[in-house]
UniProtKB/TrEMBL annotation:
The lineage of its organism: Eukaryota, Viridiplantae, Streptophyta, Embryophyta, Tracheophyta. It comes from the Eukaryota. It comes from Eragrostis curvula (weeping love grass). Keywords: Membrane, Transmembrane, Transmembrane helix. This is Late embryogenesis abundant protein LEA-2 subgroup domain-containing protein. The keyword Transmembrane applies. The chain crosses the membrane at residues 20-41.
């Protein structure tokens, strides 16, 4: 049967191949168009999110001379807004510090962290960055032992610390419409200890924080 088709058969099969190639090209073009449209929609609906970093990669600690022994912890949290169109707010910020044996993703961050504290809200204009000084005065009760002793009495440096930052990112999508995302960032590795004025500490590079996508809600 096949033999009788002769040259006509190979023409037909060449024609089929051409059609198949056309289909393949059309499919690739359609996929590309869909990818471009989806990305365009994403850009419009979901602008870049806030970027955080810890200036100098350090949380500085200063023992406070007082009736009750305490250490002051200080860090500078830098928030950058990569968007040219929308203003961003970072609200209800909680900072947790974890040692290198505790996963920062724990569901009980308050219990499992070395220390937890609140930071002040940040407002970041389009394509600007804002530095926020985060401070807490911690006593032996606020901090898991042996870390209080390390920072207060021994003046040691705790290395390889992960900072978790929980908060709400509010984005002004259009005037009059706010989008709210729960956000979680991990900043690692940080030093805890040292002096704010310390030359050596000041030369450490900033540590960028990784954004872990959280649940989302619209207001
Ligand atoms: C603020 O953050 C804390 C700790 O993450 C959370 O328990 C609390 O519900 C938050 N408050 C608001 C108003 O979102
Ligand atoms: C790390 O932190 C956890 C929780 O605070 C604590 O139980 C654990 O003993 C610490 N690990 C080390 C090696 O200090
Ligand atoms: C958006 O959220 C910010 C921060 O909470 C608030 O100041 C502003 O008024 C809100 N805008 C609208 C339109 O709700």
């Amino acid at each position: 049967m096949e033999g009788r088709e002769g040259d006509g058969g190979s023409e037909k099969s060449a024609f089929r191949w051409l059609n198949a190639a056309r289909f393949a090209v059309a499919a690739v073009v359609i996929v590309l168009i869909v990818v471009v449209i989806v990305n365009a929609i994403k850009v419009v609906l979901r602008p870049d999110t806030l970027r955080l970093s810890v200036v100098g990669g350090s949380v500085y600690s200063t023992p406070l001379p007082a009736d009750q022994a305490a250490v002051a912890l200080d860090l500078t949290l830098r928030a950058e807004n990569p968007s040219g169109r929308v203003r961003m707010y970072f609200l209800n910020i909680t900072i947790y510090l974890f040692n290198n044996t505790t996963p920062a993703s724990t569901s009980k961050p308050f219990d499992d962290s070395i220390i937890a504290f609140q930071a002040v809200d940040e407002v970041v204009a389009q394509q600007m960055s804002a530095d926020s000084a985060c401070k807490v005065e911690a006593t032996n009760d606020d901090m898991t032992s042996p870390y209080f002793d390390m920072l207060y009495a021994k003046r040691d440096i705790i290395t390889d610390v992960t900072m978790r930052v929980d908060g709400k990112i509010v984005t002004e999508v259009r005037s009059g419409i706010n989008r709210t995302n729960l956000a979680m960032f991990y900043c690692w590795p940080l030093f805890v200890g040292g002096y704010p004025g310390d030359e050596a500490s000041n030369s450490w590079p900033d540590v960028p924080c990784t954004h872990m996508p959280g649940s989302q809600s619209n207001e």
